[in-house]
Amino acid sequence: MPQNDDALLDALLSLPEMEFVLPSPNGQWVAWMWIGLGETADVYAVRTDGTAEPVRLTMTDQNTWPVSWSPDSQSLVVAQDTDGNERVQLFRVRLDAPQHMEPLTEANPGYYIHGGQLHPNGRWLIYSANVDENGQEIEPSLIYRHDLETGERVILARPNSPTYMPPSLNPQGTHVLYQRKDLHPSGEQLWLVSIDGEGDREIVNIGAERKVYGVWFPDGEHILIHAEADTHYRVGVYSLADSSLRWLIEDPARNIERVSFPQNADRAVLLDVRSTRPYGSLLDIKTGAEEAFPVTPSTLVPVAPAPGGAWTALHYSSTQPMELVRFVPENGEMTSLTRIWDMTTLKPADLIPAENFHWRSVDGMEIQGWLYRARGEAKGTIVHVHGGPTWHYEDWIDAEVQYYASQGFNVFQPNYRGSTGFGRAFTEAIKEDGWGGREQDDIRTGIEALIDANIAQPGRIGITGTSYGGYSSWCAITRLPIELVAAAAPICGMTDLVVDYETTRPDLRPYSAEMMGGTPDEVPKRFRERSPIHFVDNIRGRLLIVQGDQDPNVTPQHVTDVCAALDRVGIAYDVLSFADEGHGIHRRANKKTLYKRLVQFFEEALAG
Fold first, then answer.
1. Contact predicate 384/51, CB 8 Å
2. Positions in the chain short of pLDDT 70
3. Cα–Cα nearest to 416, from 460, 477, 471, 378
4. pLDDT tens column, 464-502
5. Which helix (DSSP H) or strand (DSSP E) does residue 592 occupy?
6. pTM of the entire structure?
7. What is the full DSSP assignment across 448-514?
């Protein structure tokens, strides 16, 4: 165990967080992004046979993450932005030349790129971007075929509305699968276009207000369909040969939130998520037979088949850092590929386990959250609200939460309505009111349940969170009495939903309209009523505003405007901004500054 608070925080921040896990087409490698080993995030890869240490493929001063493998499994397309501005440049990195990044697109473009796949010919790059043929930024994201030798960019398809979902090239390089939101902000339809730009057509439409997703089979002739139904998700197969769609799984009792089909697999991978925990299964597409993936005490998520009858899988919990393992289903043998425990001074006993906490909200709906109890007598309770809101907290390690708990705070993470992990009906429930509705009551009643359970004490409760968690922090401090929320530290949180709609990235604007039931012109009253900036005169507790200056999602205009509003009514506040951050605080040094400042802020604010 580290001997002092600074050493503990350094150890927690250097415990690598894993994201964007991608198996290679041949199943011999897995690549991912690791956060924490350096000042910024970088891309790593490891052999799935367990014979070698992970290879660091990038080493830069900017966040870099993997996008796709080349068809021959010998290189990766990776993305990098500048200080979190999300205007990415794509590079190629070869396994035999690690840390040499070959530029594929221009640096810091004036538009947003989604995806990036190399064609089997090695010459073409497929992606979408909200830029027209004249280089002007536009709202819709067009589907491009970019010739890496000549620089020519050919538009394969022209959707009418923005979408942030990347296009997907089939393994044979003949067709591109992509999604459109042309009919309604809540829906997405599946479209297909040939690599020559011919035959652009809609192939699966399950309703204007419903979403459908597609994943290529290894044969490039079939597509695994994952689609919304009224209360659940269903799974089917679309055939290019005869344009047929056959449903395989239609079960309202299941919550299949994710599907994949590794190119080296003979079965699809399904993830049922129950009370935020994913359970894997393997689906034989021809017969419909399904085999459950083994369940272990910690979460085990299958990724792709590995040599020797094994699988690569993700293994994690709140006391087990997320790592890649080689898992043999036949005998349960598990071998770490990333060897996390060899990279840290922390031990499992140093980490505080997550506890399930349940309560009833205002309308009787059952809500779940995670509770981390302080060691010893608690100084207070910090409510830590997740972003999205279409996301959820799991039983996994969060360095921020672990640090707060180590410093004497109970930490509470509510999975309010609108969160994933509890079924489609629960996720969709947030749309009944729109942002700022009963999901905020879910958070409030969770706080009250903590008080009733003698876990939290009135007047000694603070709240923080990033993005939608920041918005929820603003809602709490402008709505709730000081007994329930005595301090708030919103991070990159929306204050004015009209400003958010008008200044956010164009590809995110339909999501706002979907969640609010319309645009600011269509439902102006709702946008105003749900904007905390109009209610800052209600604030009685302490306030610390945190923002990344390069944020293109929740722009710094939110801070400028809300500070002016606070000044007009004489409400005190502090601002902590980071010039080299975007949507969220990600650099390790900045995280250390932020977490220490938040502990100090909550210690002072909750002391009484």
1. no
2. 1-3
3. 471
4. 999 999 999 999 999 999 999 999 999 999 999 999 999
5. helix 588-606
6. 0.95
7. HHHHHTTSS-TT-EEEEEETHHHHHHHHHHHHS-TTT-SEEEEES--S-HHHHHHHS-GGGHHHHHH
